[in-house]
Design a protein that fits this description.
The structure holds two protein chains of two kinds. Chain A has helices spanning 2-18, 21-39, 44-75, 79-85, 90-119, 128-154, 159-186, 191-220. By secondary structure, chain A is mainly alpha-helical. Chain A has one domain. In chain A, helix 1 (2-18) crosses helix 5 (90-119), helix 2 runs antiparallel to helix 3 (44-75) and helix 2 runs parallel beside helix 5 (90-119). By secondary structure, chain B is α/β, with parallel strands linked by helices. Chain B has a domain at 15-100 and 154-228: Rossmann fold (3-Layer(aba) Sandwich), CATH 3.40.50. Chain B has helices spanning 50-57, 80-85, 101-111, 117-127, 143-155, 173-188, 200-204; strands at 12-21, 24-34, 39-43, 65-70, 73-74, 86-89, 161-165, 192-196, 209-214, 217-223. In chain B, the strands form two sheets. In chain B, strands 6-7-8-3-9-10 form a six-stranded mixed β-sheet, sandwiched between helices. In chain B, helix 3 crosses helix 4 and helix 3 packs parallel to helix 5 (143-155). The radius of gyration of chain B is 18 Å and the shape is globular. The chains are: A mainly alpha, B alpha/beta. At the A-B interface, helix 1 and helix 4 of A face helix 2 and helix 3 of B.
Chain lengths: 222, 247
């Protein structure tokens, strides 16, 4: 836990100083929501259909930006290799980086949701608890994928392009489930239905976290 | 109480190691053994495999064939204990530009689980005369100061095996002299020094043993005094530099 915390604090400190990752994630997410608001002048019924997909598209693209930046700092001066030189389990590096990515993604999501509630004149409060659970588990799985593929892409020449190319075909599953669960939560579906959606998102997320935990060792190697 | 590990048992070894990058062989069937207390100069022309050799010893590059052993065990498969005994400084500084030298060292010290972290960091900063700039972001420091911070990072956890790839790069004359004295002192204390250096005379002044590579092949491994004129057509071994360092 101490090592995970050390890596998480280091990433937060670097972001606090550089302010490179979070602003770009938030701006990108806001831009998506803003442009869609202009493109579709929606009534409440249509907003309900549009919003879940729209939100997760904004989160997905903002996330890719964040994951790329997260490993840009590690790539600079060979810091990822510096981590590999330490007598620590590579999976703790994965968990530390993943939690940092989760924090950044969580902040960007909060900003995007707040903006969406204003621009679409839509209250998320009735579904806030469910939405928080879906966002947490969906973002956890997405951050796990972003961390593992971010590290893979960091070793390639076209890393900015490679990350979405590698990540989206796998992230597709969690995004679909998260959109489905978010739609159920926002339209006020029966409790059992929403809970089932949350469990599915949590299950897939857990699989991605465990896979990243087990595979990160190999990603760190040349 | 377990018996103390002897110097010979604490060996770091390459056993028939080859390393390929695609079709290019950076190391070909290299076997070497390093023990604490010896100072080794890894020498060869550009592309000889010096950096790959050091990276392989540090556990950063997995051999394509053969294995790296520490205390007789595979280094890659049992990496936690060996890593505490290895200090590696490379062309890359392994430092975060947004963090200061002190913060970088504290971060590294935490990863290595150092007990008295404040004291270890202060000692490392003092050792490389970084005190005055210790709290400025690394990205604002000069090349020489970054190199000194990188070396401080490699020395921080008091490793037994020091793997230094061109450690004098970017250092001013005073820092070079200080580093030479420091390295000679560490070898006298029983540390193993394995360094590559493009300046043969400078490296030879510190080393007792020469490992010469050419095209990834081991060309010579033995005492520096008995070495043939290094790399025919290359720089000759100056008599004045032989046997200067103490064992």
């Amino acid at each position: 836990m101490r090592i995970i915390w050390t890596i998480l604090v280091k990433d937060l400190r670097i972001e606090w100083r550089s302010r490179e990752t979070l602003p770009s994630m938030c701006v990108f997410g806001l831009l998506v929501v803003f442009l869609f608001n202009f493109a579709f002048e929606t009534a409440r019924e249509e907003t309900l259909r549009l919003l879940p997909g729209l939100l997760w598209v904004a989160f997905a693209f903002a996330g890719v930006l964040g994951f790329n930046r997260s490993f840009a700092a590690e790539r600079e001066n060979g810091c990822l290799e510096g981590l590999a030189l330490a007598p620590i389990d590579p999976s703790t590096i994965f968990l530390g980086k993943m939690l940092a990515n989760l924090v950044f993604l969580g902040v960007a999501e909060a900003v995007v949701i707040f903006a969406a509630s204003l621009w679409y004149n839509f209250s998320f409060f009735p579904a806030l608890a469910w939405l928080a659970a879906i966002l947490f588990f969906g973002s956890l799985g997405y951050a796990a994928l972003g961390t593992i593929f971010g590290a893979v892409a960091a070793h390639t020449h076209m890393r900015e392009v490679m990350l979405p190319v590698l990540q989206f075909p796998v992230a597709f599953w969690i995004l679909i489930l998260a959109i489905d669960a978010t739609a159920d939560a926002l339209r006020g579906a029966p409790r059992v239905e929403i809970a089932g959606g949350v469990y599915r998102v949590a299950g897939v997320s857990l699989i991605f976290v465990v896979a990243g935990f087990l595979l990160f060792e190999y990603v760190l190697e040349e | 109480m377990p018996p103390a590990t002897s110097r010979a048992e604490r060996a770091l070894e390459l056993h028939r190691v080859s390393k390929y990058f695609g079709d290019v062989a950076a190391l070909r069937n290299v076997s070497l053994r390093f023990v604490p207390g010896e100072s080794v100069l890894v020498y060869g022309p550009n592309g000889a495999g010096k950096t790959t050799l050091l990276r392989t010893l540090a556990g950063l590059a997995r051999p394509s064939e053969g294995e790296v052993r520490f205390e007789g065990r595979n280094l890659i498969e049992n990496s936690a204990a060996p890593k505490k005994a290895l200090g590696f400084a490379s062309h890359s500084s392994f430092l975060y530009g947004e963090l200061s030298p002190r913060e970088n060292l504290r971060f590294s010290g935490r990863l290595f689980g150092l007990r008295d972290l404040d004291r270890a960091v202060s000692s490392a900063l003092d050792l490389f005369d970084l005190g005055a700039r210790a709290d400025e972001p690394v990205r604002t420091l000069s090349r020489g100061l970054v190199q000194r911070t990188s070396l401080a990072r490699a020395f921080l956890h008091d490793p037994t095996f020091l793997l230094l790839d061109e450690p004098f790069t970017g250092l001013d004359a005073t820092s070079v002299k200080n580093l030479e004295l420091l390295l000679a002192g560490l070898v006298r204390q029983g540390k193993a020094l394995i360094l590559s250096n493009h300046n043969f005379e400078q490296g030879a002044a510190l080393a007792h043993r020469l490992v010469e590579l050419d095209g990834g092949r081991l060309k010579y491994d033995g005492r520096l005094e008995g070495a043939p004129r290094v790399s025919e057509g290359g720089p000759s071994l100056p008599e004045s530099s032989l046997g200067k360092a103490e064992g």
